[in-house]
Design a protein that fits this description.
The protein is about 5% helix and about 25% strand. It is mainly beta. It has one domain.
Length: about 270
């Protein structure tokens, strides 16, 4: 009788499932991550990782005002009192039109404040007149509204400014992320002649630098950056493409004598509303 030799049982292979693969991949990735070193970088010694210290310093600039250097009005006598908004360029083709005057070539003046002081304290734009030879009995107003067409006048009594009293609007100049100015509710510049905020239209006057007239006061934390007295959106620096909100409206009497007169308007900007 022959004995049959029994073979040892085969070892069972455990199945490899997909669930084990992600664990292996994660282990490999984790091993490849290098933690940044806290050591500073060197311009002369290499390192697999290092740190660079960055520092930014902003220093205070100045508070300044920019405005059109000339204002022009031309009236043709009609026998009536007339009111018109000043042009920043000379007027031409002026002629009587009923009870008023029509002109061509008028351009609205520009006015802007550049507050680079970083103080957030607000500012005040004021003025005083010198060398005043404006027509006798005339009235000069600063306002946020004026003639629909710069240079054209309309008949209205000298004591009744025909343009609505409007606070000038402000927008940021091109390339300036500014904080547009907000008209202050409390103003105090005793040293330069005013203790209250302006009510529009503002009568332009003031005999000297210590008796200025407040044209506009920006409350604290507003008016920072390059601020245009205008509406719309600037397409270039210098308030290019905006619509001016800085009007100088002049009213003359119907019996004004013929001649060329004028004044020097001294514009000042001071810190604080």
């Amino acid at each position: 009788m022959r004995l049959r030799q029994r073979r040892p049982p085969k070892a069972r292979r455990l199945p490899v499932t997909l669930s084990t693969v992600p664990l292996m991949v994660v282990a490999v990735l984790a091993a490849s991550i290098t933690t940044a070193s806290a050591a500073p970088c060197s311009a002369g010694t290499g390192a697999s990782s290092c740190t660079v210290a960055a520092s930014v310093t902003v220093t205070a600039g100045t508070l300044t005002v920019e405005t059109s250097p000339n204002l022009y009005w031309t009236f043709v006598g009609t026998g009536y009192d007339q009111w018109a908004s000043a042009s920043a360029s000379t007027l031409s083709g002026c002629a009587a039109s009923g009870t008023g005057t029509t002109c061509t070539g008028g351009v609205a003046p520009k006015l802007m404040v550049l507050d680079a002081s970083g103080s957030s304290s607000g500012w005040a734009v004021s003025e005083y007149l010198s060398g005043n030879t404006l027509p006798s009995g005339s009235v000069l107003h600063f306002n946020g509204a004026g003639s629909g067409t710069i240079g054209n006048s309309q008949a209205s009594p000298i004591a009744a400014d025909p343009f609505a009293g409007t606070t000038p609007g402000t927008v940021c100049d091109y390339a300036s992320t500014c904080t547009p100015a907000t008209a202050a509710g409390a103003c105090a510049h005793n040293g330069i002649g005013f203790t209250t905020c302006p009510a529009y239209a503002v009568t332009v006057g003031g005999a000297d630098a210590t008796h200025q007239v407040d044209l506009y006061s920006a409350t604290a934390s507003t008016g920072m950056g390059a601020v245009c007295f205008a509406s719309g959106s600037a397409s270039g620096t210098g308030c290019t493409g905006t619509v001016s909100s800085a009007f100088y409206n002049l009213g003359i009497k119907g019996n004004t004598t013929v001649g060329t007169t004028g004044a020097t308007i001294n514009v000042v900007v001071n810190s604080g509303p």
